[in-house]
Write a structure and sequence with these properties.
458 residues, 19 strands, binds zinc ion
Length: 458
């Protein structure tokens, strides 16, 4: 057996190269185009809209689709009846459609019970939602868990309605059926998993929904071309009830989740915003802070709170998974949120691409963080003799690379991971990881354990 210190290391397959996954010029356009394809579909927490969305996304990536019957108990919840809708409109006294589901699916309160009734303007107003402070946009409303029917419209249009009789028609159905979610699994060397998730239950809302679905699908497509250490699970499930259903059916699997990220609102012009996991100091929390420090000027980090998207379920105390939330504009804080103003013009390919690259940088850290030990720890090894010391004048990156090697050698005492070293040296993780890879190849470092155990590290 040759000594590990001699010659190039035989096995340097520890390095997962995410560069080929990172966005090229086309990635933003590809995501915007995919978001445009699924934007018109009327999705809800159950029903054909979710299936149709998964069918379109499934043309890019083979999502595995699960159907969970109505009535299935999932922790403290029950999978609801399935909701579908064919048509909905309001007719004025002359028979003219003044509100039409075919024009915009936000016009109907999601999960509206079927109705066909004639009523006065005053009575109709009991079933109409508007935004007086934003009189030109249509709000988005739902009534999942209490039977109701209603319409949403621009406040300015409501104010212009004349007294008289109106006919309200909603051709919907609420029947036993199933809840649908989709998963794509990219298998890695390890069965330990990174969970990436977005909700798939909003109708025509671009940033708050379509952006996350498009990003994850493009990411899944590109992951297919590389070998990773971790297994990556991409989960597209209806908000709240979908995540709860998945957790109820996959409780054992959650023990394998080493990190997770929920995403939504990833295509608008605001700076990135990351909400920490409930743990606050999990590897994913540290990795995102590191990325923001080095590349995302103005990006914000928020502490965990038990409100938001499906991180609420993943971070409930019975699971306490290391799952954070990535957004650009934060939900509930931008004027277009949950209105017809959240449309395709609100998304830009360049901001989608920036979100995409940030997530790839995150996966790069998660997949490549490891602990190595210096095999020549007594004084500095001679780097020049091994061709490692970059001394060529004019190479502006050379001093940084040299510093990274010195930091890696000095800190690789068995106690520190590469992310620890990147944090302490204030050098980007990628620079530290590349230096470690060179030193490993030269036989100066060896990985000493497969992975820091992030479950027990906090
Ligand atoms: Zn929403």
């Amino acid at each position: 057996m040759p000594d590990d210190c001699e010659g190039p290391a035989k096995d340097v397959a520890h390095w997962t190269d995410f560069q080929s996954v990172r966005g090229d010029r086309n990635v933003g356009e590809a995501m915007h185009s995919l978001a445009s394809q699924i934007y018109p579909i009327c999705r809800s927490i159950t029903g054909d809209g979710v299936r149709e969305t998964l069918r379109i996304l499934g043309e890019r990536v083979p999502y595995q689709v699960s159907e969970v019957p109505s009535g299935t108990a999932v922790f403290d919840w029950t999978v609801p009846q399935e909701w579908n809708i064919n048509d909905a409109y309001i007719l004025d006294a002359s028979g003219k459609r003044i509100v039409d589901f075919a024009d915009c699916n936000l016009h109907v309160v999601s999960y509206s019970t079927p109705v066909r009734t004639t009523l006065s303007l005053q009575e109709l107003k009991q079933h109409i939602f508007t935004l007086p402070d934003a009189p030109d946009v249509i709000p988005y409303r739902t009534s999942y868990y209490s039977p109701f029917w209603g319409f949403c419209m621009a406040h300015r249009q409501l104010e212009a309605l004349a007294d008289g009789t109106y006919e309200a028609v909603i051709e919907s159905s609420l029947e036993d059926g199933s809840l649908t979610y989709g998963e794509y699994v990219h298998p890695g060397q390890s069965s330990e998993e990174i969970l990436l998730s977005a909700h798939i239950c909003h109708p025509s809302l671009a940033n708050d929904n379509c952006s996350g679905l498009a990003l994850l699908t493009e990411l899944a497509r590109r992951l297919q071309s590389i070998k990773t250490r971790y297994t990556y699970r991409i989960l597209l499930a209806p908000g709240t009830i979908g995540a709860i259903t998945w957790l109820a059916r996959n409780e054992e699997r959650t023990e394998k989740i080493r990190a997770g990220l929920v995403m939504s609102c990833v295509g608008d012009a605001a700076q990135l915003s990351y909400k920490q996991s409930r743990r606050g100091t999990a590897l994913i929390d540290r990795a995102m802070a590191h990325i923001f420090e080095h590349k995302s000027l103005g990006a914000r980090i928020e502490e965990f709170s038990p409100y938001g998207y499906d991180e609420r379920q993943y971070c409930s105390p019975g699971f306490n998974l290391p799952v954070g939330l990535l957004q650009r504009s934060r939900f509930g804080t931008f004027p277009e949120y949950h209105t017809s103003g959240d449309n395709l013009e609100f998304l830009s390919p360049s901001h989608l691409a920036d979100s995409f690259d940030t997530i790839v940088d995150l996966l790069n850290i998660l997949d490549n963080d490891r602990r190595l030990i210096n095999l020549a720890p007594k004084c500095e090894p001679q780097l020049g003799r091994r061709g490692l010391y970059a001394s060529v004048g004019g190479d502006s990156e050379a001093p940084k690379r040299n510093m990274a090697m010195l930091w890696v050698l000095n800190q690789s005492d068995g106690d520190h991971t590469l992310l620890d070293i990147a944090e302490r040296s204030a050098l980007p993780f990628q620079t530290i990881a590349a230096a470690a890879s060179s030193l490993e190849r030269a036989g100066l470092l060896r990985e000493i354990e497969s992975r820091p155990n992030q479950i027990n590290s906090v």
